[in-house]
Every structure is written in C-alpha cells, then in structure tokens.
Design a protein that fits this description.
In chain A, the strands form 2 sheets. In chain A, strands 2, 4, 5, 6, 9, 10 and 11 form a 7-stranded mixed β-sheet that branches. Chain A has a 4-stranded antiparallel β-sheet with strand order 1-3-8-7, with no helix packed on it. Chain A has strands at about 5, 10-15, 20-25, 35-40, 45-50, 55, 65-70, 70-75, 85-90, 100, 105. Chain A is mostly beta strands. Chain A is built from no helices and 11 strands. In chain A, strand 4 and strand 5 (about 45-50) form a beta hairpin. Chain A starts with a strand and ends with a strand. Chain B is mainly β and about 120 residues long. In chain B, strands 2, 4, 5, 6, 9, 10 and 11 form a 7-stranded mixed β-sheet that branches. A 4-stranded antiparallel β-sheet of chain B has the order 1-3-8-7, with no helix packed on it. Chain B has strands spanning about 5, 10, 20-25, 35-40, 45-50, 60, 70-75, 80-85, 90-100, 105, 110-115. Chain B is globular and about 40 Å long. Chain B has no helices and 11 strands. Classes of the chains: A mainly beta (about 110), B mainly beta (about 120). The interface of A and B includes residues 37, 46, 50 and 92 of A.
Chain lengths: ~110, ~120
C-alpha cells in the first residue's frame, strides 16, 4: 500500500499569499498518477489536478501541480478568499488507492 | 454533464446490512470505472472500493474487504455498495465518484451512514 503523507497539517495564511503544499509517497507513484482535491465544509471534494500536473476543467491557473516519483507539490500562486479549504492528495496508480491526511489552509 | 446522486444512507445497528445506490447520468455509464469513497465525521477521505469500467474487476480497501460488495446495474445506470456486518467505524458520508481510468473526476453529494446501537 502506498502511504501518502501531507505537510503541513494546517497553514494559516492571508489572501494574496503564495501557498505550497507537500505530498510525499512511501513508494514511487507509477505514471505520476497523483491527484489533488479541494474540499470545503459540507461539500464534496473537487478535483483540481490530475496526473500530478494537469489542471482539471474549469480550475483557475493559479493552481499548479508538480512532482514525480515520491514527491509532489500543489502550489497556489496567489490565495483568493474562496481558496481557504482542505486539500487532499490521492494516488490512483495502484490498489488500494490512498489519500493523504489533508492540509487545511485557513485564514490568518 | 456528469451527475451522480447517492441514496440509501441512514441509521443502522452494528452487524446489520445496508445497500447504497448511486444514480449516474450525463455520460455513457460503462465508459468509466466507479468508486466509493467515505469520510468519517471530522476526518479525511478514505477510498473504499472500485469497479472497473467494464464491470469485470473489483478492488477493495482492506478495512471493508469481505464485508462490502460493489456492483452495478447497467440497465439503470446505477452503482451499488452492499454493506454487510456493519461496524461503528463504518459511520461516514459515502460518496460515489467516477472519471477516466481510476481517476475520481466527478463526485456525488454523498449519503450519510450511521452505525449505532
């Protein structure tokens, strides 16, 4: 099983700041099948990034994904008020599929 | 556009069974694999099960293997999750999701399952 570790657990930031979220895998994620999701309270997860660096349909270009192998990053170039949420990474390269524990981005 | 609607959640006693459904529309049902993902109250996301796009193969998390069964009815464009021998720790919002390959691109709104005596 591929274990995904996200860091930090919580980030306290202000609108306009740049954000970098980390997702580290316990073993190589094949084909870079790594996705990032955003979830707000009471809502379903929303796909942001797939295949480590491809933006999903309708996702603003301030969201960017990078990485390969075991180290992946989600970057938000400039935080907007609607970006305060919890972010999860997920690998879909091998079963069991697994999620990271999440990073909460909260308003400072 | 892709639309997924879960149903069947509710309150059930430990050891009992429950069947969840997910009605899909807006795409060719047999094109994508389909997942169940759950989220316990105040916790993170946990992948539960996957049914391959052609319906031939299923995959399960260790925590539900042998107790849960994922299946589909292509005549009704509906995904199911049969949950047997339910435990208190199965309490969660259950989401169905689908997308290309094993990617969960589209998600439903979820249905709450509470296992309690």
């Amino acid at each position: 099983e591929i274990v995904l570790t996200q860091s930090p657990g919580t980030l306290s930031l202000s609108p306009g700041e740049r954000v970098t979220l980390s997702c580290r895998a316990s073993q190589r994620v094949g084909n870079s099948y790594l996705a990032w999701y955003q979830q707000k309270p009471g809502q379903s997860p929303r796909l942001l990034i797939y295949d480590a660096s491809s933006r999903a349909t309708g996702i603003p270009d301030r969201f960017g994904g990078s990485g390969s192998g075991t180290d992946f990053t989600l970057t938000i170039s400039r935080l907007e008020p609607e970006d305060f949420a919890v972010y999860y990474c997920q690998q879909y390269a091998s079963s069991p599929l697994t999620f990271g524990g999440g990073t909460e981005v909260e308003i400072k | 556009q892709v639309h997924l609607v879960e149903s069947g959640g509710g309150v059930v006693q430990p050891g009992r069974s429950l069947r969840l459904s997910c009605a899909a529309s807006g795409y060719s049902f047999s094109t994508y694999g389909m997942h169940w993902v759950r989220q316990a109250p105040g916790k993170g996301l946990e992948w539960v099960a996957l049914l391959r796009f052609d319906g031939t193969t299923t995959y399960y998390a260790d925590s539900v293997k042998g107790r849960f069964t994922i299946s589909r009815d292509t005549s009704k464009n509906t995904l199911h999750l049969q949950m047997d021998s339910l435990r208190v720790e199965d309490t969660a919002v259950y989401y169905c999701a689908t997308g290309g390959g094993w990617l969960a691109r589209y998600w439903g709104q979820g249905t709450l399952v509470t296992v309690s005596s």
